[in-house]
Amino acid sequence: MTTSTSSSTAVADRQRPTGSPFSAASTAEEVLAGLDLSGRTAVVTGGYSGLGLATTLALTAAGASVIVPARRPDVARAALHGTGSRVLPMDLADPGSVRAAAGLIREATDRLDLLLAVAGVMATPERRVGPGWEGQLAINHLGHFLLACELYPLLAAAPDGARVVVNSSAGHALTDIRRDDPHFRTGYDKWLAYGQSKTANALFAVQLDVLGRGGGVRAFSLHPGRIITGLQREMTRQEQVDRGWVDAQGRVIGAGFKTASQGAATGLWAATSRLLDGRGGLYLEDCEAAPVCGPDTPMDDGGVRPYAVDPDAAARLWELSLAATGAAPVLR
């Protein structure tokens, strides 16, 4: 058997189904029904709008203590009023802001049971942030990478183990990591930039799981499904109409679109399901492990491309991300 075949077999085995009782139609409330998360502490990025808000509301309703780092803390406090969540400032595009937020989290708690990386941007105009990073890669991947590294000691301190859940997307099917030009110095394409950042999200979870499993930290990535939220804020109404997502009045008309609660369900399942005990590095969709799909599979048909869960690629991206961010390495 060739090394390539062995690697493909291992990836397919990792992505084997769990027998989940939930589906694409399941809601956040259904996934957490009957669970008592009292005493658990979670960090939810983007936890004050869209999928993040649905995630925070479900976690707090189940008894968890939730910390929400937010680029717009005043807006976050208003959205989360009455939930008991703690809001603190953080801009994922600014490494200094991420480190400062991590410092505040370390002051607030001595352990972290859950880290849910829900915040993100999609199909934005070209922007350079930090030391010249491409904006979507910086916000969707590098900012979350740095945050997870900064918070890793808290995750490793969770007595019953911790889980890190990273929102990727079916958009990962648009492109692998552009190793020769990850920051689009030679010409910008907003959809390829988005796709690369989502592939990075999936690979990040693969390698974090490799490094963290010995310390009880398991990691997962996921496609939440097709949902109209603030994620599309940089797209014009006409772009969304042309893609068949909404009508001229902005009403959702696309087939298979989920509610925010349904979109949050897979992340919450990843964070809490006992069916995932002892497993990690999986790419999930519709509250189940996604099958590995071929290069010609239509993006909307689901599944995960092999390059997005390839262990060697994940290790390479990890080293590149360490060098870019200057993050402290996570040791096995």
Strand order of the largest sheet: 3-2-1-4-7-8-9-10
CATH topology: Rossmann fold
Query: Helical amount among residues, as a percent range?
Result: 25-40%
> Based on DSSP secondary structure assignment, what is the total number of beta strands?
10
Based on the coordinates given, report the CATH architecture.
3-Layer(aba) Sandwich
Describe the structure in your own words:
It is a single chain. It is built from 10 helices and 10 strands. The protein is an alpha/beta fold and 332 residues long. The strands form 2 sheets. The protein has an 8-stranded mixed sheet with strand order 3-2-1-4-7-8-9-10, with helices on both faces. A two-stranded antiparallel ribbon has the order 5-6. The longest helix has 23 residues, at 190-212. The chain is globular and about 45 Å long. The two termini are 29 Å apart. The mean pLDDT is 92.
Indicate the topology:
Blueprint: H1 3-14, H2 28-32, E1 41-45, H3 50-61, E2 65-70, H4 73-79, E3 86-89, H5 95-108, E4 114-117, E5 128-129, E6 133-134, H6 135-156, E7 162-167, H7 190-212, E8 217-223, H8 237-242, H9 260-272, E9 283-285, E10 288-289, H10 311-325
Parallel strand pairs: 1-2, 1-4, 2-3, 4-7, 7-8, 8-9
Antiparallel strand pairs: 5-6, 9-10
